[in-house]
What we know:
This protein has helices at residues 5-25, 28-31, 34-73, 77-111, 126-147, 177-181, 269-298, 334-338, 343-359; strands at 115-122, 150-159, 164-173, 186-192, 203-213, 228-236, 242-254, 259-263, 312-317, 322-325, 331-333. By secondary structure, it is α+β, with helices and mostly antiparallel strands. It has three domains: 5-111; 115-213 and 304-359, Alpha-Beta Plaits; 228-296, 2-Layer Sandwich (Double Stranded RNA Binding Domain). The strands form two sheets. Strands 2-3-1-5-4-9-10-11 form an eight-stranded mixed beta sheet. A three-stranded antiparallel beta sheet has the order 6-7-8, covered by helices on one side. Helix 4 (77-111) packs across helix 9 (343-359). The longest helix is centred in the first third of the chain and has 40 residues, at 34-73. It is globular and about 90 Å long. Residues 299-310 have low confidence and may be disordered.
Amino acid sequence: MNLPETLVRKLEELSRQHAELEEQLNDAEVLTDHRRVRDLSIRKASIADVVEGYRQFRAMYKECVELRAVIAAGEDAEFAAMARAELPVIEGRAGETIERVKSALVNADDLAVGSVILELRAGTGGDEAALWARDLLDVYSRYAAKKGWSFEVMELTPETSAGGIRSVVVNVRGEGVWTELAFEAGVHSVKRVPATEAAGRIHTSTATVATLPEPEEVQVKIDWAKDVTEDVTTSQGPGGQNVNKVATAVKLVHKPTGIEVRMQESKSQQQNRDKARRLLMARVYELERRKLHDERSQKRNAQIGSGERSEKIRTYRYKDGIVADERLPGEYPLRDVLSGDLGAMFGDLIEQQTSRRLAEL
């Protein structure tokens, strides 16, 4: 029942972090900052199961050591017989507990991310693709409401001809957002009869989803004065025409990476600047995260972590009333998914990912 030294070090470090977070959350000064309290609470919750399980394991491990000592001493035959009967029971519980701890451990980093930026874009399919992007946005909005997550539309570009959307940027905040929504990155394909189709033929359209963990400022170092150029212009509508006379739209370019962000949703220049900075930080963070992932992948034969999800990940078949995820063997009721009931599918994806990560420990 001895654990690898690297695993023990990691578990001890998380126990220390948990104690520090608990101390900060009891600090009167911290309690006045609601955003900090929320972020600290999410980080604490992300490792709570790991730490509690590890403490239980240590207690059971200590009990096993004591039982073995009683058996080895053999001074009291009856007591030794009781110890021999009890030992395998405690060892079994300890083994089950440490397996649960490992499962929680491999997902702890994901659980610690409490804010995600979703970017949805209409893909192939013209007006129908724009309508599909709008429908996907509604699915995520409904699921966020069921989970009690905040759902903020940061930037939306409509497709005025049919009522769909060209693109939208959304910030979703709450416990477990990255653990689940990270699976949504990729191409979502829909097979259905478009509202504009007079002959009743089934068309295939797509929308792409990008999921970016929103980092804390301490995780991304950007010199806003030296590394970023900022342009302030009037907002533009479809086709590029100006839609107002006041310069409120903000465009940021991160010179080291070439990443460009534009925000014009708000009528306030400062609000657009704040949102643009948040999105730029998320994109720079994601770039660095992918670089690290690629470096690690080169050292292993298989991809690690969440993997790349740039290809088609899911097909929504209206005629059959089902949703098929490319990564899973089963199918899911279309009606449930469209109403925002994504929990069953996310649960299966998390289970699959956890098994893969455990195999890599």
